[in-house]
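Protein in question passed on here:
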Amino acid sequence: MSDLDAINRRIVQALAADGRLSNLDLAARVGLSPSACLRRVQELERSGVIRGYRAVIDPAATGGGFLAYVTIGLATHTKAAQAAFEAAVARAPEVRECHNVTGGIEYLLRVEVADLAAYKFFHTEVLGVIPGLARITSFIVMDSPKDERA
């Protein structure tokens, strides 16, 4: 966000907090006319600064509610091994996020399932059958006092 002027920064911050703001409300918050605000938002969208809008869904309401972060260490550190792993997790709807990271592991996953039994199934039948994994470490989320994902 370093190339954005002060007004575009305020637009981005306001939309990050509430992506459903009407253009009229957004314009008032950032001190622009509605037409100038709309032009700026459209340019932010066109340039890829704003990549999309999404609803924040309560996982428990859709059969989720059990959240785990999972670290994955690969047995081999090759491009092919990474591609194979990424393809496998792309097919797993339980994996809501997959991040390739640095350090002692290769991947950090955010996994959402219904309950502990569903997680055990995922761990064994989904992750456990992916070739080339050396380590799987699970961190079960007990509470999220701060979560700003949108």
In short: The chain has a mean pLDDT of 94.
